[in-house]
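Per your request, structure below.
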């Protein structure tokens, strides 16, 4: 029997995936890794012409990107990029046995339709997805930390576009979660988020 346990934590930007992944990993006594780390590695070794979806549109500053692309286009770019990054994550989940007891993988690139496609019959893989319905909390994170980089590196004038992006991403994610039957946690950024995520992971089995 396979004793390895892999926990997948997906969710919209600003939901605290990395914080919760760290807490879940510590609770279970296993390591964790982000799909953002995987994407950064692939950007260093992949050829843009051959693997364009690993990269953001070429030649765009943050300001120009947020100004010229619609919210719907930006979310579509995020989902397309997820397809590319997920290929790396999927191989890592299936083939990495260095972490013999298992590990946690978190990131916006963990999407319900991808998990359902590749791991629906694997009981050793558990997935949970996070959303945040508090618009003001999303706004505070974006204005203070930034979504596309250091918040101080680009103007506040385009940050509302990022707030819209997060809300649209969350809506699309929620629809996929409901379609494929995965557990969904609406985070409150309070002390009980970890407990609720752990309960959702257990229910996923």
């Amino acid at each position: 029997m396979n004793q390895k346990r892999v926990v997948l934590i997906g969710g919209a930007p600003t939901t605290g995936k990395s914080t919760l992944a760290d807490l879940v990993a510590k609770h279970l006594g296993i390591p964790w890794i982000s799909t953002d780390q995987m994407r950064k590695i692939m950007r260093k070794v992949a050829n843009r012409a051959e693997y364009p979806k690993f990269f953001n549109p070429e030649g765009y500053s943050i300001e120009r990107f947020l100004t010229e692309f619609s919210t719907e286009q930006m979310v579509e770019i995020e989902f397309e990029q997820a397809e590319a990054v997920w290929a790396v994550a999927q191989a890592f989940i299936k083939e990495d046995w260095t972490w013999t007891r298992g590990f946690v993988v978190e990131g916006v690139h963990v999407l319900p339709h991808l998990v359902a496609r590749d791991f629906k019959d694997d009981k050793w893989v558990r997935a949970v997805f996070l959303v945040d319905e508090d618009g003001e909390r999303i706004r505070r994170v974006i204005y203070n930390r930034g979504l596309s980089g250091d918040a101080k590196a680009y103007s506040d004038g385009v940050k509302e576009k990022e707030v819209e992006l997060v809300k649209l991403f969350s809506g699309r994610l929620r629809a996929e979660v409901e379609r494929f039957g995965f557990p969904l946690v609406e985070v409150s950024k309070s002390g009980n988020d970890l407990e609720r995520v752990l309960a959702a992971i257990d229910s996923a089995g």
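Residues 5-203 form a domain with the Rossmann fold fold (CATH 3.40.50.300).

Regards,
D.
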